[in-house]
User: Fold this.
Amino acid sequence: MDVNNAFLHGNLEEEVYMQLPPGFNCDDKNRVCHLHKSLYGLKQASRQWYSKLSEFLCSHGYKQSFADHSLYLKFNNSHITALLIYVDDVILAGDDIVEINSITNLLDHTFKIKNLGNLTYFLGFEVARSSKGIQLCQRKYTTDILSEAGMLGSAPTSTPMNFSRHKNTETGELLSYPAPFRRLIGCLIYLTHTRPDITFVVHHLSQFIAAPTSLHHRASMQILRYLKQHPGQGVFFDSTSNLQLKAFCDSDWAGCPETRRFVTSYIIYIGNSPICWKSRKQQTVSRSSSEAEY
Assistant:
């Protein structure tokens, strides 16, 4: 759903004045407008709109998630309804059709919304539905990254990284203009939301953005060549699998040649559907492989 003129719904708490708009006839040039509602362009506009919407949802039984403050949940017996907010765009999901219709009507009555139907595209995420489940991918976002880097015509590769070579700050020549590399790594980090297969290598390269070298640049190009092979690959949420929670994790020992710290990774499934994954370097140095695994 999309909220019409979202920022105009926010109530101002500060005392704000503005110059008279063009075309307003007034003989006194010293007069100004005293604002009671937020306008587009005000620094307070986003905050006041979010405060107004949050107050509205909480008054109707929704609770703000501590994990993500843009997520609001409502539990009714065994049913759940969720609202995810990004500025004036709202995703509404759940298994209680009565509550979904009720909150939709209330939002439309209070804020005037535009119902865009079933979710198909949101912030670079593409959603495909079938009787078997839901497929999430970022195909267009991936092709945009390849196009911006000039790699649309590159030859694809089957691996995102040459794992036989360690990349550190002492190999290769420093890039004279590192901004494109930093921008590329930032784009790839967002892509890891639907691509667990590149999570490790992207997070590995992200630790060198302060002083990237030509070796790191070549490694990032290999990631793009790997993405070129299957740009529409993503995650699939199976509607027929069980709800058993499964987690897999692994750690190396002194895997970082510079700090001798170990890298641990994990992925969590509900049934056959991956819901959470991460790869990170730990803060301590382990003295044995068993300590690293523990």
The chain has a mean pLDDT of 87. The first helix runs from residue 45 to 59.
